[in-house]
Amino acid sequence: MKALVVYDSFFGNTEKIAKAIGGAFDPQTQVEVVRASEVKPEQLEGVELLVVGSPTRQFRASEATLAFLNSLPPNSLKGKKAAAFDTRVDMKKQKSWLLRLIGKLFRYAAEPIGAALEKSGGKLVLPPEGFFVEDTEGPLREGELERAAAWAKSM
Ligand SMILES: Cc1cc2nc3c(=O)[nH]c(=O)nc-3n(C[C@H](O)[C@H](O)[C@H](O)COP(=O)(O)O)c2cc1C
Q: Which residue has the higher pLDDT, 99 or 76?
């Protein structure tokens, strides 16, 4: 199987998750892990599983991730498997009640990424998933790389 993991990352945390996902597939799977701003159309050719991940920025995916998703022609993922993830802070653990409230009201990036992949014809093999950073610049919460690898293995 050919898989492509597309990600964006400002501080390196989403990149680490993307690489953990890419490294978790069985050896028969041909995997490429590519930054969203660097994906070339030919890298999508023959891909059977497309995984897209982004840091959550202002309750949505990053600009580069959105640009990549918008560049997918309609129905271009028809017959392909897809999965979406993000990195995020745990709004429930914020000290400020305002941030906790905001966390309840607003979404993270993974769900809209998943919706965009479905809109292009992809079939989500797993519900969109979020991986936690301890703070804006990281580090990742302990155990998240392992959880990302397990998430990928369950696809
Ligand atoms: C400008 C900005 C906006 C952010 N907005 C959110 C947000 O809405 N929700 C959230 O959970 N985390 C938010 N974060 C935290 C990011 O999710 C966190 O920086 C990211 O997961 C780190 O991943 P990276 O190292 O791959 O960039 C924001 C961070 C920045 C710098």
A: 76
What's the rounded mean pLDDT across residues 39-56? Answer: 96
Instruction: Give the number of the atom of ligand 1 that is nearest the alpha carbon of residue 17.
Output: 26
For atom 31 of ligand 1, the residue with the nearest CA is: 136
Q: Has residue 103 got a pLDDT over 80? A: no
Nearby residues of 87 by Cβ (< 8 Å), 6 or more positions away: 13, 14, 17, 53, 54, 55, 56, 130, 131, 132, 133, 140
Kindly report the average pLDDT of the chain as a whole number: 95
Domains, the chain, ordered by start: 2-153 (3.40.50.360)
- Residues whose CB falls within 8 Å of the CB of residue 140, separated by 6 or more in sequence, listed in order: 13, 16, 17, 87, 131, 132, 133, 134
Is the pLDDT score of 38 beyond 90?
yes
Å from CA of 141 to ligand 1 middle: 14
